[in-house]
Amino acid sequence: MWNSIYIYIEKKSTSRYSQFFLSLVAFIESIFFPIPPDVILIPVIHFNKNKFFKSVINCTLFSILGGSMGYFLGFFLFDLIKEFFDLGKQELFFYFYDQYGLIAIFLGGFTPIPYKIIAITSGYAKFNFIFFLLLSFLSRGLRFLIIGYIVYQFGDYGVQFIKKNKTIIFLLIPVLIVLVIYLLIGHA
After folding, report:
1. DSSP string covering 38-74
2. How does residue 68 score in pLDDT terms, banded at 50, 70 and 90?
3. Cβ count within 10 A of residue 85
4. Nearest-CA neighbor of 136 among 78, 66, 188?
5. How far is it, in rounded angstroms, from Cα 153 to Cα 159?
6. 63 φ, ψ (degrees, to nearest 5)
7. What is the model's pLDDT at position 63?
8. What is the C-alpha end-to-end distance of the chain, expressed in Å?
9. What is the Cα–Cα distance from 138 to 105, expressed in whole angstroms?
């Protein structure tokens, strides 16, 4: 089964509709789809190195567009379901998100935490939409740029490197970025 999925993705990534396919997956993944756009981005760049930058920009923009849709779903969802929850606990959640939302959005856009959850939660918490967009652009763009560059620069070896070092790329790098920013701001 996985082999046939791989063959399907490889075919789509080399077709003239590869950018459309990448856009579609990046968009719907940010709302509900369980497969991250990296699964499409990697072979698209691997088989079309001349489309490296276009693919990274495309993936980033459509991911953020989908995230915006998720944000607004969460934003309007609160009014529909608030009566089913203990609003006292909601206040604690909102306080937490006000304090740490910047970090949550950045890490959620970069790490294996599903971005769709961060997008919907940000809307639900009524987090500042402009900050949400900026942080999404930074984190998603950085994630896709790093992945794309590794594949573009190192080909098959880059693909294998990403497979073997997902934890370092998707967890350690963003946590280190947040830590460095915190240390710089904390000591400024």
Report:
1. HHHHHHHHHH-GGGHHHHHHHHHHHHHHHHHHHHHHH
2. very high
3. 11
4. 66
5. 10
6. -65, -40
7. 97
8. 54
9. 10
Q: Please give the sequence-ordered ranges of beta strands (E in DSSP) within the chain, or none if there are none.
A: none
| For the chain, the helix, strand and coil percentages under 3-state DSSP, each to the nearest 5 | 85, 0, 15
Spell out the long-range contacts of 126-131 with Cβ–Cβ below 8 A and sequence spacing 24 or more: 126/75, 126/78, 126/94, 127/97, 127/98, 127/101, 129/68, 129/71, 131/101, 131/102, 131/105
In angstroms, rounded to a whole number, what is the distance separating the alpha carbons of residues 59 and 44? 11
Amino acid at 92: L
Q: Look-up: residue for tokens 């490889």?
A: 10
pLDDT digits (tens, 9 = 90+) for 36-53: 899 889 999 998 888 899
Q: Which two tokens stand for residue 58?
A: 């495309």
Rounded CA separation 36/29 (Å): 6
Tokens linked to 10: 């490889």
Question: Rg (Cα) of the chain, in Å, rounded?
Answer: 18
Query: 55: which 2 tokens?
Result: 């693919």
Tell me the pLDDT tens digit for each residue of 20-37. Answer: 999 999 999 999 888 889
Choose among 103, 108, 40, 35: nearest CA to 74: 108
Amino acid identity of residue 181, one-letter, is: I
